Amino acid sequence: MRKSYVRASLALLISAQLIFAATATRAQNAAPQTTPAAALEGFTPADSAVERALEDRFRAIPKPESAREHLRQLTKEPHVAGTREDYQTALYVRDRMREYGISAELKEYQVLLPYPKAPTVLELVAPRRERLSLQEAAIPEDPTSASRKIIPLFNGYSASGDVTAPLVYVNYGLPEDYAALKKLNVDPKGKIVIARYGRSFRGVKARVAEEHGAAGVIIYSDPADDGYAKGDVYPKGPWRPETSGQRGSVQYLFIHPGDPLTPGAPAVPGTPRLTREQATNLPKLPVQPISYGDARKLLEPLRGQVRPAGFQGGLPFAYHVGGTQDVRVHLKTDMEFKTTTIWNVVGRVEGGEERDRWIVLGNHRDAWTFGAVDPNSGTTAMLELARGFGELTRQGWKPRRTIVLCSWDAEEQGLIGSTEWAEENAVELKEKAVAYLNMDAAVSGANFGASSVPSMWKLIRAAARDVRDPKTGKSVYQAWQDHVREDRPEAELTDESGTDEKIAEARIAALGSGSDYTPFLQHLGVPSLDMGFGGDYGVYHSAYDSFAWMSKFGDPQFVYHVAAAQIWGTVAMRLADASALPFDYADYADQIRDFVNETVKTARRRKLADSFDSQALLDVVSELGGQANRTKVMQTDLLAQIEHSKVSADDTHPRSIARLRKINDSLLAAERALTDARGLTGRPWYTHQIYAPGFYTGYAAQPLPDLRQAIEARNATNAREAARRIAEAIRRAAQVLKDGREG
Amino acid sequence: MRKSYVRASLALLISAQLIFAATATRAQNAAPQTTPAAALEGFTPADSAVERALEDRFRAIPKPESAREHLRQLTKEPHVAGTREDYQTALYVRDRMREYGISAELKEYQVLLPYPKAPTVLELVAPRRERLSLQEAAIPEDPTSASRKIIPLFNGYSASGDVTAPLVYVNYGLPEDYAALKKLNVDPKGKIVIARYGRSFRGVKARVAEEHGAAGVIIYSDPADDGYAKGDVYPKGPWRPETSGQRGSVQYLFIHPGDPLTPGAPAVPGTPRLTREQATNLPKLPVQPISYGDARKLLEPLRGQVRPAGFQGGLPFAYHVGGTQDVRVHLKTDMEFKTTTIWNVVGRVEGGEERDRWIVLGNHRDAWTFGAVDPNSGTTAMLELARGFGELTRQGWKPRRTIVLCSWDAEEQGLIGSTEWAEENAVELKEKAVAYLNMDAAVSGANFGASSVPSMWKLIRAAARDVRDPKTGKSVYQAWQDHVREDRPEAELTDESGTDEKIAEARIAALGSGSDYTPFLQHLGVPSLDMGFGGDYGVYHSAYDSFAWMSKFGDPQFVYHVAAAQIWGTVAMRLADASALPFDYADYADQIRDFVNETVKTARRRKLADSFDSQALLDVVSELGGQANRTKVMQTDLLAQIEHSKVSADDTHPRSIARLRKINDSLLAAERALTDARGLTGRPWYTHQIYAPGFYTGYAAQPLPDLRQAIEARNATNAREAARRIAEAIRRAAQVLKDGREG
Q: With an 8 Å Cβ cutoff, are B316 and A316 in contact?
């Protein structure tokens, strides 16, 4: 579902300017100081050598030709969740895993899914009558684009509706865009609004339109953001062509994701269900996506004021805001909401010493159309990874901890397969889950990117150092740094002192939402990451997200599919095998400190600096950092004792192992401690106090969500309460780390 | 010639980030502390009351209906310099001045002017053969646009040439654009380059292309910068329509402006002339401007790499850099270079006590087409001002100093009328000129803007406070502040401490080039300013810069023409009448300090910080600031003595007046002292050590020009020498102020 890591990183940079150079540099240098040279973090030197050899064997297994064949099979037909073709892909994934020697089962849920019942009618009524095609053209070079099974352009969970009204252009449909319109006395109430994709999750666009009384919403892909202004369009280039639109869910997943009728509970027989009217995460107005070819017909005749600053897009005329009777539009959507069976596939590699500690890997499998990039490049990576793990187990490998491989269904509609599974297994996951490792669109190009909780930054960077970048032959880590530097102007790379010592490492962004880590991190408090290789990807959620596109533009040699399997598997193996979990809560504390400082600046600008106790927050952050450092020191000592006891055959070994396991459990529990069962303001499903999708951004993370939201709403009372709860959560996490070292 | 004050301000902000909040605030508050309340700066309280009454009478005289009639007369026909129609406008201006009671004469020069001899041929040769029209369409709503006297689209001083070559798209044609192309292994040598207008003076585009070995240059108006992306196009809106191109000179005026054959000397009989081959400010390759309608036909078929970041414009396809044989172009220009008579008009209002001190006002009169905005809105303002001054003199006013009103010719080709006059009268001007007040395109909208030497910032702001903004009824000053604030985001308006105390005043930009102040300030060292009211002006140098455009968009009520006359006249009267010249060299010192600090930062980034003695520079700047403050104190004291002596009839009056005049002369001489007769590196005509047009920007100022240029070229030896000369100049200025107070 999520489009681009680069985009998420940028959003983060803009919204919070979080990760500063000094932190990153310190982080980079810390590893050699705290562990013996050449040892992997969390391993004794001896175990490290064994692990490295194992990982080398693993990384030699995934192959381009095998990856290519998976993708070809998975993308033969459109496979929207709940369809027969979707079921076929579930069987394909289950059977491949079994073939590779990994136990795998289907896991079903019955959830409410949306499908278009009749073709949407969208027509210009004035200044002339013209019905728009809403069809993505068949492209000869891309054989599957002519398939009659491709689902029409629609937005998942759009309401059914039939409205005729004047049209208002609302730019990206953000609250500030409506504020700009209000200054011009343009009222969207009762009108149909047309917004361009970008800058916020499409569900947010629907929600904000609804809050402003709109009668309907049209969302289009503007060529300035997603079309020819980015580069040559398909099939000449990888970018979105004139007739292409972006499907996608408009579920209000910032309130809660998953089945709309069973929030917080699994959609299985016996669970009581809400009615559709009672659901809180569904829009009440019709929403329809269109192409820029169609949008041009609506936008060009608009009158009213010429757009405010920032409203102009890439179509070749001056954009007007409309809102007058000059342009009237008829929008009729006819949706069917069906309780439908969906199929997750869950595979397991059983662990040895700690089989009740789980490393959970997840990728969704359902697609809006063929899903070559989104999500089946990730499914392909998972299958190649499974092939590798199966081969290693055949050779005798048994990981210390259990590895769970999840192929989710119905992610596109609202992270449904993952959410239902996480809700069903909440108690067990809270106890057992070490980490959740997500890969959605694993490959749309060659540029590595990642988002994660800060405790996993070092782990991701270390793994990226050990995987080869296919194009450059350098490490993925080095290629990633080089790419990020290329995009920055000179001034940012050298500071005023003329040195470049302070240059940051490539940033690892915060987790917002838009993929399946959300139930794990933000509902349950499981340390999570999301990663993949991005590129010039202009066919997102279109009929052209196809095997042909991937073969021509995304990864013609399928080598990045291999690299994706390698890095995902490397991270998983380290977490599965390490005696000491390599989670760094000092990085977490540094990151939270930056969030707090950034928030204080915003609060000062809004004259709300006194509304909450920022010093108390900074104090508990320091406490967390201190406890984290003491825990790291103890982990190092215990690993050294274990190494020594093996040599000297003394009797400290079992006791040291037991103490490490207790510390490991505290490292899981620390993330859980950052959740608060009372949930966030207005959205109790979200419990994490540090990370949540922004209410008005949707995809991008809003760090310290309740505090930021209170400050944005200029609500001093809420800000005080939010800061208090955040401080409590951080204090709990610090205490958990402390307790973990005792005994 | 110059398009927009707002643009110049932005360029300045970007290039130097000069005027900081604290300075501005201090400057704003300084006046009330150093002069008696309500007194105008430089006047005794008694004189101030007289002056205010006079100014009020003056400002009541300019009238919209009279302004409208001037503009109608001036814009009836195209009046390119050296044509019969140009001569008619000279007579119109001279005769109106005489009619108003102001003596006025024509002043002729014989200069080398360029005209198109035969229509330019521009045709696509591959991938298909198609000749481009190069015609601006007649628009029914704009009757003069059908005139057959409109000069074809051409660039003044383009060479004649006939080349057929592959086409390369070079973005704005800046040095960094060529550097980006070099990275892609695209070599413009022997090719025709196509650059878009903007970010640099068009002569710079020609020069940089020439330096890179291009065979020809096409310059077009991209709709992202100058077309529909800015707003509705003419005649629906004020912006550039599809067939419209931008004429304009490509003289290398950053080397020297004026007649190419008589640099540094007046183009009058008896002056020896260079041959055209000897001239140093003329391009050697053909250069042709085209519309975006025509440009689309050249750009759309381009192949080669998809543009680097920043190269994409507003046409509806992905821009490629070309440079391959896929697109070949034939360009044939046929120019005639004629030694031609041009006509300045010079009017005089003789001064009384100090008739040998001159306040020089200038506006050019020649236009590429009808010149409604550029320049005849300014000519109109000058005529209304002349009507006002004539009326005041009839009522008995005789200014203390002489006011000279100049209507320049051939500015469009290269500031020729003003440069020849300044060169002819150099000795007298160096002795007598108090200030040069320029107004080129006085009105294209309602947004006031100004550029000047820092010593006149307070004067401009004070005058703006005393003129009413026609649209809002507030002062021009207040409307100016409000407009600038509107364009800035919240974050810039409130600092992190949550207060807004440090918000800067609307900035007054540095003088670069592109209008007639250049010979006065940058060749002779006369304190200069340039100002006007800007707006949505999309018909610059096109067939649509017409009376119809002005009547529909620029100033339908002609009230801003009146406001322009009022503010210009107000500044002139204050300078003409003040006993103590209100020039503030403390502001100048603060500004230079910011320039130095900014330059030091750049030098550090380039590891050239040790190449020059920045502390020595900062020391002389402090010395200048200190002398300036002492001079201000003495002016205040002397004004108080004069006021007192009038009351007490003591005998100090004549002595105080004499001392003030000596100080006044030192304030003129201080600006002269900032020039260095040796000139700038590679361009001896430019003598000013603080201000010059940038070598690679052309319009925008490059402060501390030789030092900045040396640092950009990474030349440590030149940087040291430049810093030394700049420090010498500032020290001279400080000494001049000091000497002025003695005796």
A: yes
